[in-house]
Amino acid sequence: MHTAMGTTEIFLIAMLVIFTLPYLIWRLGNTDYWAPLVVVQIITGVLLGPGILGRAYPEYYNFVFNPQVMGAMNGIAWWAVMLFVMIAGIELDLKKAWEHRRESMITASLALGTPLVFGCIAAVGMLGYAGWKGAQAHDWQFVLGVGMACAVTALPILILLMEKLEILREPIGQRILRYASLDDIAIWGVLALILLDWDRVGRQLGFFLVFGIATLLFRRLMAWLEERDRWYAMPVWLALCALAADWAGLHFMVGAFLAGAVSEASWFDQKRLDALRQHLLLTFMPVYFLSTGLKTNWAVGGSAVFVAAAVLLLASVAGKLAGTHIAGRILGWSRTESSIIGWLLQTKALIMIIFANILLDKGVITNETFTALLLMAIGSTMLTVPVVYPKLRAAAQLVFKTS
Predict the structure, then answer these.
(1) Closest among 350, 349, 287 to 22, alpha carbons compared
(2) For residue 301, what pLDDT is reported?
(3) CA–CA distance from 85 to each of 34, 211, 231, 261, 288 (Å)?
(4) For residues 55 and 86, is the Cβ–Cβ distance under 8 A?
(5) pLDDT at 211 over 70
(6) How big is the chain by its Cα radius of gyration, in Å?
């Protein structure tokens, strides 16, 4: 039967698995409180990867996820994640951050800088053992890359979780979005620094120069166009920016983020933008999660990967909480408020996984380090709602009693 099936049929079998299995686990297991569907999809991708399914049933794994099928899925995954990162860039609200610049800068810098330091310390420890640093990386690139992975806040997932907690449109939710937006810019800036190819520095400087000029022209064009035409212009702008960034030796994802970051959310209807993000999560991003899971590797030793993931999770969460509590002391917040902000800002998931994927593609980290970072991202995201929800309820009851 295997030999009688063509690539199209096998591809559709893979699609059936990708879209059926996570949904059934999420729906029948009622996991939404501690593991939203997006987290279940990521975990399912890991389960379907070579470390678990490939090891238990290598024949079926190689049959379904053969090179031809993976090539087709990779194309879908690349475009889906570029669109997703572009939307994250569009959702940055720098004007609000500027209006509240003192509070935003203090919180964002501490919420990013403290876990970055903690993560870099963990990465220095990993350098003492073989198998973690990528073949193409200098020590500083590995340390900074892993450190920044511990400091990342996943803005799209943060929005989804705050919607679930019903605080997205509340003042605290809008404040948290401002902090996360500033951190997003720093994250992609550091990534560009890590990926800077000194042999092609002229090409990369040329990219930023041309991009700056093109951005001015693009913004004028978008201001002139009607909204319905802006929706068609954005994919063209995305493809151009991603292509130029990749050609310059950066990464197409850096170009995708920049394409969104220089765009204005006010150009688009917010409900349609939210719907586009939701539809991407529903129809295309599961393919990206699977291709991510296929990169999981336990070759250093299963226990070593789990130990590394636990250390990185501790550095990430402790660093983020320490940073927001320091900010809270400076700005006069209560301990509960600082804790809620810290726990929400430590949410990793998608952006960290995208960030780690880029480091893996560029040879900065190995598959084993990627697996440890992936497990850290899953753990941090699963902790968020169970920890934050009781704190929000307690804070609301306290306000009610004192009012």
Answers:
(1) 287
(2) 60
(3) 24, 18, 16, 10, 13
(4) no
(5) yes
(6) 21
- Report which secondary-structure segment, H or E, holds 276: helix 270-283
Q: Is the pLDDT of residue 356 over 60?
A: yes
Tell how far CA 300 is from the center of its chain.
Answer: 25
* β-sheet bridge partners, residue 133: 365
**Closest to 97 (Cα-Cα) out of 161, 11, 186:** 186
Query: Over the range 137-151, which residues count as b (16 or more CB within 10 Å of their CB) and which as e?
Result: beeebbbbbbbbbbb
| Type of residue numbered 350 | L
Asked whether the beta carbons of 260 and 84 are under 8 A apart, the reply is no
Among the listed residues 389, 354, 376, 356, the one whose alpha carbon sits nearest the alpha carbon of residue 310: 376
> What pLDDT, on the 0 to 100 scale, is given for residue 187?
80
Which tokens belong to 316? 């990430």
- What's the full length of the chain, in residues? 403
Give the separation between CA 273 and CA 264, rounded to whole angstroms.
12
Residue 335 and residue 328 in contact, taking contact as beta carbons nearer than 8 Å? yes
Cα–Cα dist 90/178, whole Å: 13
For residues 211-220, one letter each, b for 16 or more C-beta atoms within 10 angstroms of the residue's C-beta and e for the rest, the string is beeebeebee
User: Which whole-number Å values give the CA distances from 204 to 167, 244, 249, in the listed order?
Assistant: 41, 9, 7
